[in-house]
């Protein structure tokens, strides 16, 4: 299994299919999610093994199963990437960026509404706007 993953990774890297990173903060946050998903996958695989099958014995040597080593590596990577995210305060930076983007959208829509002669303080228009915001939030989930 590990050999297959490494082979596929090497093939993709050699094929020039590495993505361009436009937003390193989002890329690191996405990578953290992937690492945690892989860690959870390996944890589930270990849970399916009984305690006696975590090791092999043969030719006078005892070895850990590959799943144990992969899970340990995934845990190490999780600690590393989460530590990096914490140290760089990426969640705070992403929240600030999203807030700024949201404010920019509100500003543009308010200006368009004003140019169209709509009064956003009108209760009917305000109710329609709030209804559309709630609908967009539901659709985003």
In words, what does this structure look like?
It is a single chain. This protein is mainly alpha-helical. The protein is built from five helices and two strands. It has two domains: 88 residues, no CATH class; 43 residues. The protein has a two-stranded antiparallel sheet. The longest helix is centred in the C-terminal third of the chain and has 26 residues.
Task: From the structure above, extract its key features.
single chain, 141 residues, two-stranded antiparallel sheet, mainly alpha
What is the total domain count? 2
Instruction: Round the Cα radius of gyration to an integer and report it.
Output: 25 Å
Globally, the shape reads elongated
Order of helices and strands: HHEEHHH
Mean pLDDT: 82
Structural class: mainly alpha
**End-to-end C-alpha gap:** 34 Å
**Biggest β-sheet description:** 2 strands, antiparallel
* Sheet with most strands: strand arrangement: 1-2
Runs with pLDDT <50, length 5+?
Answer: none
**SS strand fraction:** 5-15%
Structure, briefly:
By secondary structure, this protein is mainly α. It contains 5 helices and 2 strands; from the N terminus they run H-H-E-E-H-H-H. The chain has 2 domains: 88 residues, no CATH class; 43 residues.
Secondary structure topology:
Blueprint: H1 2-14, H2 24-47, E1 55-58, E2 61-64, H3 66-88, H4 90-115, H5 123-140
Antiparallel strand pairs: 1-2
Helix pairs in contact: 2-3
């Amino acid at each position: 299994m590990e050999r297959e993953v490494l082979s596929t990774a090497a093939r993709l890297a050699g094929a020039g299919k590495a993505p361009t990173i436009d937003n390193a903060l989002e890329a690191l946050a996405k990578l953290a999610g992937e690492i945690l998903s892989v860690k959870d996958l390996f944890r589930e695989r270990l849970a399916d093994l009984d305690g006696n099958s975590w090791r092999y014995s043969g030719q006078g040597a005892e070895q850990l199963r590959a799943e144990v080593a992969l899970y340990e590596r995934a845990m190490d990577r999780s600690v590393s990437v989460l530590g990096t995210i914490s140290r760089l305060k990426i969640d705070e930076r992403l929240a600030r960026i999203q807030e700024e983007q949201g404010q920019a959208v509100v500003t543009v829509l308010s200006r368009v509404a004003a140019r169209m002669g709509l009064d956003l303080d009108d209760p009917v228009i305000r109710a329609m706007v709030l209804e559309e915001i709630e609908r967009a939030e539901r659709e985003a989930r």
